Amino acid sequence: MSPAHGETGAKRTRIMGILNVTPDSFSDGGKFNLLDRALAQARRMAAEGADIIDVGGESTRPGYTPVDPGTELARVIAPIREVAAEIDLPISIDTRKSVVARAAIEAGASILNDVWGLQRDDGLAPLAAETGVEVVAMHNRDDVDAAIDIFDDMRCFFEKTIGIARAAGIPDDKLILDPGIGFGKTLEQNLIAVKRLPDLRALGFRVMLGVSRKSSIGMITGRPVEKRLAGTIAMNAWAIRDHIDILRVHDVAAHLDAIRIIEALDAV
Predict the structure, then answer these.
(1) In terms of C-beta density within 10 A (0-12 exposed, 13-18 middle, 19 or more buried), how is residue 66 classed?
(2) Is 214 a catalytic residue?
(3) Which entry of 97, 102, 214, 228 is annotated as an active-site residue?
(4) Residue 53: which of 111, 137, 105 has the closest Cα?
(5) What are 249's strand-pairing partners?
(6) CA 215 to CA 224: how far, in whole Å?
(7) Predicted model pTM
(8) pLDDT per position as a tens digit, 29-87
(9) Is 11 marked active-site?
(10) Stretch 156-178: mean pLDDT, rounded?
């Protein structure tokens, strides 16, 4: 991994900055759904130290309303094209639809971020193999079940995802696993998923964590979504100590500071 942001040593944990171009995302819906605002936010995150820009055009918040591919394409393609032309960072497309993913890759995206771990759209894995993009595969469930062992469920889910990826011809080093905090889990299960990140990494793949401003933070702290930065950093700091590969966050600068402090302490 190359040195980041002018530092002499490589930064172990990379930052994926969230760019939601939706009207209804749980935290920043409606803020960046105009092209000029989206591009300004991408510039801001790049200047603050983001390593990846993640563009999403369909909210997956609890109770979200699915959008058709045409609507999603209309939201994401212009921002991806403009960001790719101006900012020298990898772009991730956050989608569960192969038709959207293909157009996004053609526009400049080089990472596919799928909230269903390649298990809902049969076209995603062959597309990723064909184009050579990296894949973030997230654990998800249709229903919350407090009685299950959530890590066993994650392991079984990812065994299926890994099988799909390998069968399609996706190299292991292109696959990144995401425990799916806030997706089909109780609060306790979300916390278990974070605590067992080392076990997830033991499967042999890179791991990404996305807890930024999520309801789990609010349940623990009692804070509304706009006041969850401290709680988010605290949970992500735990993951940094566990050598998480990528953090997906709204607040780039604050997390780069946290990474630098923790890694400096680890180095002495």
Answers:
(1) exposed
(2) yes
(3) 214
(4) 111
(5) 17
(6) 9
(7) 0.92
(8) 456 567 999 999 999 999 999 999 999 999 877 677 889 999 999 999 999 999 999 99
(9) no
(10) 98
